[in-house]
Design brief:
The structure is a homodimer of 375-residue chains. By secondary structure, chain A is an alpha/beta fold. The first copy, chain A, contains 10 helices and 20 strands. In chain A, α6 packs across α7. The radius of gyration of chain A is 22 Å and the shape is globular. At the A-B interface, β17 and β18 of A face β17 and β18 of B.
């Protein structure tokens, strides 16, 4: 028996427009080892917005379609068109993670029927999703779909930061744009595991969010004495690795310069190549799409700047590490890794112009959840 | 019996000047396990100029002293003073490598007396150098001091590039500013070892130098079709690692973008995170001291940009690898790793204003050698 459902789609077209639509899709009965899940909660993460809206000029928004099947169109500025060449004309489904209830199960997966599960794998901004049973995680009995909706991207990213730090021989972290949902989770994780964390925020309000979670080191990058305070915090914690979702501009370079200055405090002999303390900056997002500027003469030759994404990290770390991290997320789902959603919307509402402008802002402290069962 | 000699020194002073002088130093008889070497050849490498002249404004050159003991003074522009804070007031000896004859040997090192050796370890712009015998390399009988003078920095750097490429799983290289002495050596090494090498130069004359050595891929970054040719050469060779001594500007970013475009040619599915081909850029110099600009949105998230220096590389690779690479340099000293010097000068002549302006230019194809026995 086939199941009819909706799915949110994003298409960049040759004519320089980006279109959001709601497509009708038909799900066949699940094959052996597969389950069909009714999606009840899917978070709108920054990483989803990259695919959903990517190169679009939000100010050019035009709405169309019907109440049930709304559409939105945007212009893609000429300067951004080269970056979307590879997706032109493709109707892309969106939504990295979600949670819901198993409503049909193939051979061997019958034990999951009626159970609540969490999922990772794309196309979660939809009514239903068919997945292999090994790609879903059974939620604990007390967890709601909303509790399980965000159990992959942010928790595994926060755990991935700490795991990367340890594997690469560092003992403390710097985190930029630190008041995000992910940043709050990282602070809770570091507090629990006694890992020194230097948080960089952009307003006193953001700083207060982290201090309420017990953060010790919270620095406002807009403060006049930011640079000297950063050197002090790095010298105190010994942080030599940083994670930055902003990417554009000089903040990452400034962090490495501060690490070098902290290292120089204990140097006894001059070297024109700088200190022998290795400094690592990972860029894991593109909140600022401007180029990254490295004033590398200020931090010597012992450094590396790299892209970081959770999926390649997990692949590189291997299945045992991935399983260990996933188990920890389930164990601490409603404590360390609890997500707080400020607004829950239906699937069609995601294409409401005012709603879209709200979640597209990526305002600190705001987090949207899609519940397709609301319509 | 003490030995009196001269030593070139560079001092950055609190008053914003940099001074070059020739100091008198006394060498005691070598202790057990040590040798005293009369220096007969020491190359002026770009890495030496960084320490010798570093932040100085060359145009401000003022000469003084006597014919035997000349001095040179320079202004340090205010903008560069923070970068020299750690060396202020220190009289620094200069010269990373050299070769000469053992004229005195301590207990256990007598076998080296009268032998010609090569050395790494600083303070080679001098008449004599005392070193532990394990820090000198006996030259083959047919090798002159000039043959052995450059057997560490450039040869081990070229070998280090290839070793790094292999250890990190790449199969072909890109090299920028490729017509340098080092670049020519790298081309000879890659030709001998059948490693695909993409050379980037800045003039047709530089390109001709490399083609004469048998280079297949030589691209002029000032050519109108440079970018598309670079993508073609990278696609053909499969190069995913690059070494760049320039550092400033966008060339490194352009190389990674070309690697990403080459990778995209074989991608079957769109990913907003770019290709899954890992791209590595190593910056090993500062020919351009401007900031490094990374247009990272053009090359996805699978990349790393890092500083690279030969000494930390050898330390990380371990003593067995270092010994293997050193042996290869000795074996191919007058072939693969032969250096060509265009001018040989005495020690005092290094402080002659016209001579200094000549070696400070770092012109392609020019290479200066200091022979202190010439006065």
């Amino acid at each position: 028996m086939a199941t009819n459902g909706r799915e949110l789609r994003s298409t960049a077209r040759e004519d320089g427009t980006l279109e959001l639509t709601i497509a009708d899709v038909v799900h066949d009965d699940p094959a052996a080892g597969e389950v069909l899940v009714r999606i009840e909660a899917a978070p709108i993460n920054p990483s989803d917005l990259g695919l959903l809206l990517g190169p679009a000029d939000i100010a050019s928004l035009r709405s169309g379609g019907t109440t049930d099947r709304p559409t939105l169109s945007f212009d893609i500025p000429a300067s951004r068109r080269t970056s979307v060449g590879a997706r032109l004309g493709q109707s892309l489904s969106v939504g990295n993670e979600g949670a819901g209830t198993v409503i049909a199960a193939g051979e061997g997966a019958e034990g999951l029927l009626g159970k609540r599960v969490a999922m990772l794998g794309g196309a979660m901004f939809a009514d239903y999703r068919t997945l292999k049973m090994r790609d879903v995680v059974l939620l604990p009995g007390n967890a709601s779909a909303a509790d399980g909706a965000s159990m992959f991207v942010n928790p595994l990213t926060a755990l991935g930061f700490v795991e990367t730090m340890r594997r690469e021989g560092h003992k403390a972290l710097v985190h930029a744009a630190a008041a995000s949902n992910l940043g709050q989770m990282l602070q809770k994780l570091c507090s629990r595991d006694n890992i020194p964390l230097v948080n960089i925020v952009r307003s006193p309000e953001q700083g207060a969010i982290l201090r309420d979670l017990g953060a010790t080191h919270v620095l406002d990058s807009r403060g006049a004495d930011f640079r000297s305070k950063l050197v002090d915090a790095i010298a105190e914690t010994g942080a030599t690795i940083a994670f930055d979702p902003i990417g554009g501009g000089t903040l990452g370079s400034d962090i490495m310069q501060a690490m070098e200055q902290a290292a120089a405090r204990t140097m006894t002999e001059y070297s024109r190549y700088g200190s022998d303390v290795f400094k690592q900056l990972y860029i894991y997002g593109a909140l600022d799409t401007a180029p990254t500027t490295l004033n590398r003469l200020s931090f010597g030759f012992q450094w590396s700047v790299s892209g970081w994404l959770v999926t390649p990290f997990l692949q590189k770390a291997g299945p045992e590490v991935a399983a260990r991290l996933r188990k920890r997320v389930v164990d601490e789902l409603t404590t360390t890794f609890a997500s707080r959603f400020t607004r829950t919307i239906g699937l069609a509402a995601a294409l409401d112009p005012d709603v879209l402008r709200g979640y597209e802002r990526k305002a600190t402290g705001e987090k949207y959840l899609i519940d397709p069962t609301r319509g």
